[in-house]
Amino acid sequence: MIFFSGGDGRSWIVFAQGSSGGGGGSGGRSVGLIGGGGGFWASTAPSNVGIAIAVTAMAGLALAATVVYTRRGTLKSPWSRRRRKHALLAKQWKSLFTPDGKFTDGGVKFLKKVRSGGVDPSIRVEVWPFLLGVYDVKSSREERDSIRAQKRKEYENLRKQCRRILKQSDTSIKLRETTGSCSNQDSEEFSQVLDSSGSEDVVSARLSHSTEGGTPEEEDSVHPVCNVGPQTSDSLLEGDGEKSGLTCEDASASYSDSSDSDSSGEIDSIPLFAAERTEENDLGDHAKENSSPSETESGSKFRMNEDFATWQRIIRLDAVRANAEWTIYSPSQAAVSEIKARRFAESVGLKDYDHLEPCRIFHAARLVAILEAYALYDSEIGYCQGMSDLLSPIISVMEEDHDAFWCFVGFMKKARHNFRLDEVGIRRQLSIVSKIIKCKDSHLYRHLEKLQAEDCFFVYRMVVVLFRRELSFEQTLCLWEVMWADQAAVRAEIAKSTWGRIRLKAPPTDDLLLYAIAASVLQRRKLIIEKYSSMDEIIRECNSMAGHLDVWKLLDDAHDLVVTLHDKV
């Protein structure tokens, strides 16, 4: 008797019965089949039917027990295709609140739902401020209305300062064109703008920012003279992998000469790190020791003026080059009139946009307005190329600039460390990715060591712009929403109280993105080990992932890594 389990879920038993000897030494054999879908017999003794049925039943019970045991013994991901739930829908969203606008359970069900399926596009405007920390998950409707009004006022004050700076800049340019002279008058005018009325609200906003997690005051960072952004891994394709310096003028010129980056898969739009400035910093510190407070303050304001002028120039270049992938997700913005778009562009000083459609002009002007305000709000970071990639999806969802700005501020509380010139944030994240790979796949890690790529610098771009170039627009939003839900759960300390009691033992983490990045590399382990013999080849492979990743499979694998390694990493 032989038992078979078919691929279609049916079970079969084959009986072979025989006897030998006798008069002529001949033997007889009878064969019988029992099929799970209505079996049949052929030349089988009736006495064997009962035995066959009993054996079949016992085999079926054993198979069912094996399946149940296997499923109970496996830690399944909330993003698994077999377990994936639908996105949070509008009806479900409304049912989560009490009459006074509070979450019925402190936001636990809300965050679990987003974590497993993301957010329906129709309610993203309402949901994202909770995920990004603009509103506390325990706040009431009245509290949120008050917060929104206050934050709108703070944003408008930032924009007033930007407009004053733009006006002073235009006046100075005209003056230089007529006189052919250049003086420090620009610096004095800029300082007056920063010191003018309304700046108290901006200062309070920045103080509020600095008292929360990941603040500038908590870290020994270097204030950039020319903050042109981090070195992209893409640049390694053309060089020897060494980090090279780049001046403000070089950054602006090279970026303006680069090809149009309408495709999210292009790899040439994040600039290089500024050069290490150790000696310059030492000289600067020595000069500060021998200068008066008034000279130090004046020098600081002059430097701030130079910084902002550089940020403005690069912001406008990036804004004009932003792709139009978002248009199908924001019909109202896509249908903006040409008059409105051009008027807005002129108000923020946008230039060289005549070749763009009205919707892209309007989108570019919004990028300029919000990014300039952020450069003033967080002047330690200012603006770096790559930030526009992070803001573009947000403004495609949030139609009010002040709402988009504060969502971006919430996003940047974690992402801002990607744009520090001292590289502390990037190095920390690359180190975690490296450690995940080492703990999960020692064979792959040893191969990376042979190639001197164990620092995982080949995933640099993924870290800087959070998979924005590797995933489609909608996939990016899904990944970010799940990541934000994890961070919101950690922020509200829900991870400790709720997920710790769940059998899956899959706690939310601040570093879900890094687990996803490691998962994307591990998915290609065989290719990397067998075919690639240099870091440049691995970089090309990582860049070629664009458009070929399944975000839910990626999250599924990332979750498996979290379950296995979160206590070790």
TrEMBL record:
Molecular function via GO: GTPase activator activity
Spans annotated as Disordered: 176-267, 280-303
Name this polypeptide is given: Rab-GAP TBC domain-containing protein
Residue intervals of the Rab-GAP TBC domain: 118-487
Organism: Vitis rotundifolia (Muscadine grape)
Bias type Polar residues, positions: 176-185
Top-level lineage group: Eukaryota
Taxon lineage: Eukaryota, Viridiplantae, Streptophyta, Embryophyta, Tracheophyta
Stretches with biased composition (Basic and acidic residues): 280-289
SMART domains registered for this protein in UniProt: TBC
